[in-house]
Each structure stands twice: as structure tokens, then as C-alpha cells.
Specification:
By secondary structure, the protein is α+β, with helices and mostly antiparallel strands. The chain contains nine helices and 13 strands. The longest helix has 14 residues. The protein starts with a strand and ends in a 6-residue tail after the last helix.
Length: 325
């Protein structure tokens, strides 16, 4: 499950709260990861905003619909200065491990992690990938090296590529052909220390622009299907997203949503969750929201597999829901 939690903090108890207007938008992506027999990978994206409190608004009635979920957020705790508050918007989501955790706990986790490797040591992960794909062809890595030599590659080029010291594109091409694996599978992105936490800073002096203005939040190259943007909207815009969208209104002005025959007002402090592939029309006169997007069950691997289906397979997936046994 993907959870949207919004917490309010007291003045002087979180980050910088002494400024009377929007002064800092600091966005952090924390790939918090842990694994045991009872825990799974959990990734959390934190969005910190220091903003001026607008007048309390009356929340409009919510129209119940399964495609858009509205959540009313309570006002902040008691503060010495009611004109200011800090908001923490946290989107916590699980990765692929969570989907198969019930099966993984029946295996030797330490051995599993050893064969997966550690991205903080990219050559190790590359070696584990070679071992995994070679096994599917009845080969070991040394036997793969022999076949590479038979194709005319030098010993230095082979050893340099297999150890990832000096990558030779022609050797990678041959490995891809021998194992019948796309070359992209051997692209291993090292997880460096400065990528453990990433952030994006928006200047407080940046003037408001008319129309629809989106500014990307911090992102992480190792979690390519989680992201978002801050959005200032004057006018109207229609969007259909491939992701689960979590929208939080931190500005003073409301945003109107319309989908199918439903409408909803997103007032200050409100949030909504929108399912993928739902056309939604947004309209506002200067509304400011944070939009967080995660793939959930419609991740890139699922989309790739669906793209391989023939028309009959897609139709059966959608319509044939009866048991065959």
C-alpha cells in the first residue's frame, strides 16, 4: 500500500519557521532501506514546506468516487504564532520486494542478498548479473570468457570488461549476443554516497508565473518511477497520468477537479489520490499544490510485459476473470 501522511509541526520545532512568507522549499528523497525476515524495502519521499498560514477555509462536500480519494487534513497543533506553520508531506511506498515478500522469507536471505550484490560496489553487481544470465545458458562466467576469446576479443579487453575496470563496448555487445540479453541489462549505476539523499532547492525570490507552471522536485536515479513537482496553476489544464498521483494543496487558493461526472474542490490543506489512467480536469486561479507520483502496480516492468501481449491476451486479461480449474 502507498500511504500519504501529512503532519503539522509547531513553530520552532521543525526546520526554519521564523519567516512570515514562503521562504524555503526543500525537497528530499530518502531511499530508506532495510531487510529482514519480517521487514521489506521501504522508500520514503519527504517534502518540507515553510509557508504562511492562509485563512481557515470551509471544506466542500466530497463526492464519493473510487477513482479520486479526498482526505481532509486537520489544522496544525497549537502554535505561539498562528500565522506560521511547517508541513511535512511524506509519501511512503514499497518496491518489488514487498510484492513477493511472502515467498522470499522461505529462502536464505543472506545468500539471496549475496547473489544480488550491493550497488555501492557496482562491479560486484555486474558480476552477479553475468553469473545469473550465464546460468540460463548453461555457462559459467569463465566459460563465457572463453567464448569471448573465440570471437577475437583480447584477454585485456575481456578481463577489463568483466571486472568493470575498463569497459569495452564491443565485448558488451558480444556478451549480449551470446547470452541473448539486451545490453541495457548490463548497465549498472553505482550508488554513491551523495545519492543516498538527494534534494532540490527552489529560490524563494522566484516570481509567480501565469498559466500552468511545474517545477520538478528532487529525484533519484535509482528509483526512476517515483517523482513529482510543485504546481502553480492559473486557468485550466486536463491531465491523464500513468502513475498514482498524490496532490496536496499548500497554497491559499482552492483547486477544482472534475472527472467523469464528478467534481471536487481541493481547498487549503486538502489532499487527493488519483488512480492511473483517469482523465482529470484541473482549474484554479493561482492554486499551489505539491504533486507526488509513484507507479505502484503499474510499474515499468508490468507495462513492458503488457506491451508484449497480443490483442487476444490483453482482451483475456481484462475480461476472463473466471477460474479455469
Amino acid at each position: 500500500l502507498i500511504l500519504l501522511n501529512i503532519y503539522y509541526c509547531k513553530k520552532n520545532s521543525f526546520l526554519i519557521t521564523k519567516y512570515p512568507v514562503l521562504t524555503v522549499c526543500l525537497f528530499l528523497v530518502l531511499p530508506v532501506q532495510y531487510f529482514s525476515k519480517y521487514h521489506t524495502h521501504v522508500y520514503t519521499v519527504f517534502f518540507f514546506l515553510i509557508i504562511r498560514r492562509p485563512p481557515r477555509s470551509t471544506l466542500s462536500s466530497s463526492s464519493a468516487a473510487s477513482d479520486v480519494y479526498k482526505r481532509q487534513v486537520p489544522h496544525s497543533f497549537t502554535s505561539r504564532d498562528p500565522e506560521q506553520y511547517a508541513a511535512i508531506v511524506a509519501v511512503t511506498f514499497s518496491g518489488y520486494v514487498r510484492d513477493v515478500l511472502n515467498d522470499l522469507v522461505h529462502h536464505d536471505i543472506e545468500r539471496l542478498m549475496s547473489h544480488a550484490g550491493d550497488l555501492r560496489n557496482a562491479p560486484q553487481v555486474f558480476e552477479r548479473k553475468l553469473e545469473r544470465f550465464s546460468e540460463l545458458r548453461g555457462l559459467t562466467v569463465p566459460e563465457l570468457g572463453i567464448q569471448l576469446a573465440e570471437q577475437g576479443h583480447s584477454k585485456e579487453a575481456i578481463e577489463g570488461t568483466l571486472s568493470q575496470n575498463v569497459m569495452d563496448p564491443t565485448v558488451i555487445e558480444s556478451i549480449s549476443n551470446i547470452l541473448d540479453i539486451p545490453k541495457a541489462e548490463f548497465d549498472v549505476l553505482q550508488l554513491d554516497q551523495d545519492q543516498e539523499v538527494t534534494y532540490a532547492f527552489v529560490s524563494p525570490d522566484q516570481p509567480d508565473e501565469q498559466g500552468s507552471v511545474k517545477r520538478a522536485l528532487a529525484s533519484c536515479k535509482h528509483h526512476i518511477e517515483a517523482g513529482g513537482y510543485s504546481w502553480s496553476l492559473y486557468g485550466k489544464e486536463s491531465l491523464t497520468s500513468q502513475f498514482f498521483s498524490y496532490i496536496y494543496n499548500y497554497g491559499e487558493r482552492p483547486m477544482e477537479l472534475a472527472w467523469a461526472d464528478q467534481t471536487q474542490t481541493l481547498a487549503h490543506g486538502d489532499s487527493v489520490v488519483i488512480k492511473p489512467f483517469i482523465p482529470v480536469s484541473f482549474s484554479a486561479d493561482g492554486a499551489k499544490v505539491v504533486v507526488c507520483k509513484v507507479a505502484g502496480c503499474v510499474n515499468n516492468r508490468v507495462m513492458h510485459e503488457c506491451s508484449l501481449f497480443a490483442a487476444e491476451g490483453l482482451q483475456r486479461m481484462n475480461e476472463d476473470t473466471t477460474q479455469w480449474f
